[in-house]
Design brief:
The complex is a heterotrimer of chains A (about 300), B (about 575) and C (about 130). Chain A has 13 helices and no strands. By secondary structure, chain A is an all-alpha fold. Chain A has one domain. Chain A is globular and about 60 Å long. Chain B is α+β, with helices and mostly antiparallel strands. Chain B has two domains: about 140 residues, NADH:ubiquinone oxidoreductase Nqo5 subunit (Beta Polymerase, domain 2, 2-Layer Sandwich), CATH 3.30.460.80; about 325 residues, Cytochrome-c3 Hydrogenase, chain B. The longest helix of chain B has 29 residues. In chain C, the strands form two sheets. A four-stranded antiparallel β-sheet of chain C has the order 2-3-5-6, with no helix packed on it. Chain C has a two-stranded antiparallel ribbon with strand order 1-4. Chain C is elongated and about 70 Å long. Classes of the chains: A mainly alpha (about 300), B alpha+beta (about 575), C alpha+beta (about 130). Chains in contact: A-B, A-C, B-C. Chains A and B meet through helix 6, helix 10 and helix 13 of A and strand 8, helix 8, helix 9 and helix 11 of B.
Chain lengths: ~300, ~575, ~130
């Protein structure tokens, strides 16, 4: 891959600018859908962009007692990880920029970086609310990460490969895996919501209990990066799940339709439930989530051994 | 009710500690006792489980009494002044009956022993008395300030007659309490999560110090007084008519019931007979306010649980009742319906029609919310079995209102001591015995149905007649107690007139104050995530609680530029500006 | 709950795009205070009963019943006690003039000059803008 193309990929497409604009657009759709579910008007199309710009121009206040370097660089690391993950997935329905054997594991790892950074950022701050929020974020990380990985593993096993582009290709050829592996789909989608701390799994940043959780002391640029990173992860996560479970992404039109459909379901789930307490979240994941994922895997492996082709 | 439990029976029971005893009316008994005897007297009351401590009123008797002529009045209490001492009144209520202990104290060393060993809920009222009047409470278990701010000068008592809010001398000279002297709360090694005074969970400021161990709360303490506005003191400086509007603005959600309690009390003192149509209209407004308050609470409680969709839906439907209130009275909040002697606004045929349609719509929606609250799995996980206040706890801690009724304690003044039009249009008490948060939801929603029914019933048979009767500008001398059922529970007003154009004392004891003790005792052992839900379960109204004054130091511009404010903020926290 | 949430997608949003879309105010709305000079007898009950001291009346000519009515828009709490106290029904509250906010303190005092047994002439203080 020559250097020029690599730089274009990282800055313009599919990384960098494209993913940034795309994630802001998806945040808008998400917020608008939730608003309409709640019988409100909702924001206008440029609201997420306006929020981002506003945060970027505000003064960043570094609270006393924190490790300054960590405080400044953790949001950058989180955002960088999210952007990097975008390079390995079939963004916009086109082939991933880079791929190699095992890039599925790398992508999942990169997606996990965000939560890890949030947890560290919260522990770094001396504020009570940040400490409680960081504890909850890391607890939630431990509980949903394993089932989420297992759920993404299902299609990989069915396709017989660890490479995302090959799983995508396999998904395009065979029946939609939402039909053949429904349990896996459920776990993957709910896992994505847990990873992004979307309601009802937003205990780590429960506004009415711990102000803003780990991000309480963040303002200005740091907060902007964390929020943008979360939106990018939303986009990346939706792309990944629709590529795996909704019959692969062959072209930009399929990409838009399938990811928006998933976003619609996610927005509906966000509006339907009350917030789960952290112990209820962990209980749910460690019992229901992991169990379902394991059962799905066992069924899959069993069928494969028997030679049934899905 | 056995004879022992009547007021007459109480006179007998309390004989050993009584200096003088006087039945003021068939529902009120006053027992004069001494500071030394108050604890055993209350103990005797508690041993037969008669009533609960509803309020403690402090009186400064040193203002000169205005000779007001001898108008016949129902409560000629307190006219024999003892030349400038203090008087502490302890009001115990049981249903419609009120038993008041009066303790006279000398001016230079006013001291009473604490009741908190016998009556745990007394602590909150005694602290208010100590801070605002300067009465020393012996044996009080903890000395932290509760209402006045920490930098309020010591030895300066706002409710004494010799303190006037305008006088700056006392305040300017009194040195502020040094920051180091402010007591450090919590012991080292404990992890304290402060909820408030600034917190997204609180719609008004209050401070809750929760000591947590992981996610479990091990200790809870409270600090109120952040929206203290000097209302009781202000009432002594304003005419009887002006005070209607002052009392109305104690709270936005319970504004009508505050002004109603006030005007009912003043009308009793003045002997005004209010026309039945006015009483009926007041009752309709009180019920409409209850509907508004409960719908608002439903939304807020849902928001605290993270259930924003229910919050949005219930507040959308709340707009219906607000529009109705605006249509009939002219304002969505602070309806200002009451006059001394009646009401200002009539409900005409068109208004009645809109009301009926509104009630039908709201009833349909409320049924839907009842289904959600009792069936939605995720919501039930946050409310079922959470925040249990047992029947005994609710009784002993003196909880009132829907909080008490959800624990099976049947306290509802509209039923026990009907006032306004409740005698002609009776209300059914809504009780639930499950004692948890879900019960509080169910009780409030069922009260909504009762309110809809009542409004329709009154509209059906609205008595004809005048809207207001004439009311004198000088209210005859006397004392009156006015108790009404606010949406949050029993609202207690003690009004004292010395025969002039301004009241001598207006004491307001709001229902939220009664319920804090229950929250604090229940909080321990619950998870941190449940605390906002438990707090919102009692439907707290901080504006109702607080009634202090802030310190305005003499000199210095009151108007700050942004730069000055920023520099002040940085230097306050010990940084370099 | 599910039905509500999906049905809401197809319903018109309940929130309004104020100020581009407004709601007509009810007839009884307590907006700005209006003084009917022809009915005023100068008894000053409104001045006495106002909880916010928002009304001041100067007597320009007692015999001709000519008064100057000063109304402080910023002090008024819109309780309508003055309307109830006035036995001549000289006071009323507008249901159209309620956009009374301003960044200029001078606009908050409305002076109505009576002409004695005639129509009321308002001074150019400020007119609350009708929506």
């Amino acid at each position: 891959m020559n250097v020029v193309l690599a730089i274009v990929a990282m800055i313009l497409f599919p990384g960098g600018l494209f993913v940034m604009v795309g994630s802001l657009a998806y945040e808008y759709v998400d917020r608008k859908l939730i608003a309409r579910f709640q019988n409100r008007v909702g924001p206008r199309w440029f609201q997420p962009l306006a929020d981002l710009v506003k945060l970027l121009v505000k003064e960043e206040i570094v609270p006393a007692g924190v490790n300054r370097g960590l405080f400044i660089w953790l949001p950058v690391a989180a955002l960088a990880a999210a952007f990097t993950a975008a390079l390995y997935i079939p963004m916009a329905g086109l082939a991933p920029t880079w791929g190699y054997r095992g890039d599925l594991v790398v992508t999942v790892y990169l997606l996990m970086m965000m939560t890890l950074c949030i947890g560290l950022a919260g522990a770094n701050t001396m504020d009570r609310f940040s400490i409680v929020g960081s504890t909850r974020a890391l607890t939630q990380l431990f509980s949903y990460e394993a089932p989420f990985l297992l759920a993404l593993l299902g299609p990989a096993i069915a396709a017989g490969t660890w490479r995302i582009s090959e799983v995508n290709g396999y998904a395009r050829e065979s029946m939609w895996m939402i039909v053949t592996q429904p349990l896996g789909f459920l776990v993957a989608l709910i896992g994505l919501m847990g990873k992004l701390e979307l309601p009802p799994f937003d205990a780590p940043e429960a506004e009415t209990e711990i102000v803003s959780g780990a991000l309480t002391e963040y303002s200005g640029r740091g907060l902007a990066f964390f929020r943008l990173g979360r939106d990018v992860e939303l986009l990346v996560g939706l792309t990944l799940i629709s590529a795996f479970y909704l019959g692969g992404l062959a072209n930009p039109l399929q990409f838009v339709l399938k990811t928006i459909a998933l976003l619609f379901i996610t927005a509906a789930l966000q509006s339907l439930f009350a917030r789960l307490r952290i112990d209820q979240t962990v209980g749910l994941w460690w019992r229901a989530g992991a169990m379902l994922a394991l059962v799905q895997l066992l069924i899959l492996i069993g069928l494969k051994t028997l030679g049934v082709h899905l | 009710m056995s004879t022992e439990m009547t007021l007459g029976g109480m006179t007998e029971l309390l004989k050993p500690w009584t200096v003088a005893s006087r039945p003021v009316s068939d529902t009120r008994l006053e027992v004069v006792t001494t500071a030394a005897d108050i604890v055993p007297a209350v103990g005797a009351l508690k041993s037969v489980q008669w009533g609960f401590l509803s309020a403690i009123t402090g009186l400064d008797l040193s203002a000169p009494a205005q000779a007001a002529g001898t108008a016949a009045n129902p409560d000629p209490g307190g006219s024999a002044r003892n030349g400038g001492g203090f008087e502490v009144l302890y009001h115990f209520c049981r249903g419609p009956s009120v038993l008041t202990f009066r303790v006279k104290l000398p001016r230079d060393t006013p001291t009473v022993p604490t009741l908190s060993a016998v009556v745990p809920s007394a602590l909150i009222y005694e602290k208010e008395l100590a801070e605002t009047f300067g009465v020393t409470i012996e044996g009080i278990p903890d000395r932290r300030r509760q209402f006045l701010s920490d930098d309020w000068p010591t030895n300066l008592y706002p409710m004494r007659k010799d303190f006037s809010p305008g006088s700056a001398e006392g305040i300017a000279q009194a040195a502020p309490v040094a920051a180091a002297a402010l007591e450090r709360r919590g012991t080292p090694g404990t992890f304290i999560v402060p909820i408030g005074p600034q917190h997204p969970a609180l719609k008004e400021p209050g401070h809750f110090e929760l000591t947590v161990d992981g996610e479990i709360v091990t200790h809870a303490a409270i600090r109120l007084g952040y929206v203290h506005r000097g209302i009781e003191k202000g009432a002594e400086d304003r005419s009887w008519i002006h005070n209607i509007y002052l009392m109305e603005r104690i709270c936005g959600i319970c504004s009508h019931i505050h002004s109603t309690a006030y005007v009912l009390g003043v009308e009793k003192l003045a002997g005004t007979v209010v026309p039945p149509r006015a009483q009926a209209i007041r009752t309709i407004f009180a019920e409409m306010e209850r509907v508004h308050s409960h719908l608002l609470w439903l939304g807020v409680a849902a928001h605290e649980a993270g259930f924003d969709t229910l919050f949005m839906y219930s507040w959308r439907d709340r707009e219906t009742i607000m529009d109705l209130l605006e249509e009939i009275s002219g304002n969505r909040v602070n309806y200002s319906v009451n006059l001394l002697g009646g009401v200002k606004y009539d409900i005409d045929a068109k208004g009645a029609d809109s009301l009926r349609r509104g009630m039908d719509f709201l009833e349909k929606r409320t049924r839907h919310y009842l289904k959600i609250v009792t069936n939605d799995e995720s919501f039930l996980r946050r409310t079922r079995g959470v925040g249990n206040i047992t029947f005994e706890q609710a009784n002993i801690l003196g909880t009132v209102g829907p909080t008490a009724r959800a624990s099976g304690v049947s306290r509802d003044l509209r039923v026990e001591a009907p006032y306004m039009a409740y005698a002609d249009f009776p209300v059914k008490t809504v009780l639930d015995t499950r004692c948890d948060l879900e019960a509080r939801f169910v009780v409030r929603i069922n009260e909504l149905f009762e309110s809809y029914r009542l409004i329709r019933a009154i509209l059906e048979k609205l008595p004809p007649g005048d809207l207001a009767a004439a009311s004198p500008r000088r209210v005859p001398e006397g004392e009156v107690i006015s108790r009404v059922e606010a949406p949050r529970g029993e609202l207690f007003y003690f009004i004292r007139s010395s025969g002039g154009v301004k009241p001598d004392r207006v004491k307001v004891r709001t229902p939220s104050l009664c319920n804090w003790a229950a929250v604090l005792s229940v909080a321990v052992g619950h998870k941190l995530a449940d605390i906002p839900m438990i707090m919102v379960g009692i439907d707290p109204c901080f504006s109702c609680n607080d009634r202090s004054i802030t310190v305005r130091r003499r000199g210095g511009d009151e108007c700050w530029s942004w730069e000055e404010l920023r520099r002040y903020g940085i230097s306050y926290y010990g940084g370099e500006a | 709950m599910l039905n509500d949430v999906f049905a809401s997608l197809f319903k018109r949003p309940f929130t309004e795009l104020y100020p581009y879309a407004t709601h007509p105010a009810p007839a009884r709305l307590r907006g700005k205070l209006l003084w009917d000079e022809s009915k005023c007898k100068g008894c000053m009950l409104c001045v006495k009963d106002c909880p916010a001291r928002a009304i001041e009346i100067d007597v320009a000519d007692r015999a001709a019943k000519k008064y100057v009515f000063h109304y402080h828009i910023d002090r008024c709490i819109y309780c309508a006690q003055c309307v109830a106290s006035c036995k001549e029904n000289a006071l009323s509250m507008s249901s159209e003039l309620y956009h009374l906010a301003s960044t200029d303190k001078r606009k908050f005092t409305e002076v109505y000059r009576g002409v004695g047994k005639g129509a009321c002439v308002e001074e150019a203080g400020s007119e609350g803008e009708a929506p």
